[in-house]
Amino acid sequence: GLKVCPDKKKFICYRSPKGLIIKDNNSKNAELWLFNIDGSNGQKLIALSDYKWRSHNSASWSPDGKRLLMAAEISDASDFNKYQWHLFLTDSLGKDPVQISGRSTMFAEPAFSPNGQYIAYSALSEGTPYSLCPSKFMEIYVAQLDSTNLKLKNERKLTSNDFWDGNPCFTSDGQDIVYSIAPGCLNQVEYMDLQLVSLSGKIYDVKTDKSVKTNASTVSDGTVYFQYRPGLTGNSCIARVETDGDNFTIIINPQIVEE
Fold first, then answer.
1. Cα–Cα distance, 14 to 236 (Å, whole number)
2. How far apart are CA 228 and CA 73, in angstroms?
3. Which of 8, 18, 124, 180 has the fewest beta carbons closer than 10 A?
4. Contacts of 102 (CB under 8 A, 6+ apart)
5. 23 pLDDT exceeds 60?
6. What is the average pLDDT across 248-254?
7. Could you report how far apart the first and last alpha carbons of the chain are, in Å?
8. Those residues with Cβ within 8 angstroms of residue 221's Cβ, 6 or more apart along the chain or in another chain
9. To the nearest 5 percent, what fractions of the chain are helix, strand and coil?
């Protein structure tokens, strides 16, 4: 999705080349672009051929706007050159990528804490058993960023279950992480709930029902904004809810036309 720079003057987003059919409009064919906040002056930051990455996604800004954080699928020299997803930092224009994740596994959807000291992400644990649906074992992790060596350190696993846990984002005070959870690969299509985990590992339900709730973001008053789709065939909406689960409201519904 679209990510606005902390100075509110620009945003980044992914864009696929013209002419692709829908099924090929994915992270293997995505390029990272930078635009002015009004959509003008588009600039390609990371092209398909850059850095020998096979795929990349989930780019977002550091709180000071000086770096971009993202996930990329690379040939992992520490794991017999098998392709693995790792986490990377670049400068604000997508240059000089540095791999910050170490162990050879699947990393996804990184997000900075508001003070820039922590990074939350979804990842597989070491020793995860083989599965036709490996993503169902994805857990929420948090780690500190060693600003000198640009590596993750003091990694902690905050969730532990046989569910898919993903799309983490910090609350504005940096003390909690809101994330989506689904029972398995197929249920990511049917329903995904919102949960909150504190940095101490305590987990709370935010909103649970038979709907898809993903791509959450938080604001300073404790409200969570997210993409919401009721049921298997419902239209995607934009909704909000407080972190304690109160005051759920659909704020943009494509089925309703204002007159």
1. 20
2. 28
3. 18
4. 151, 152
5. no
6. 89
7. 28
8. none
9. 10, 50, 45
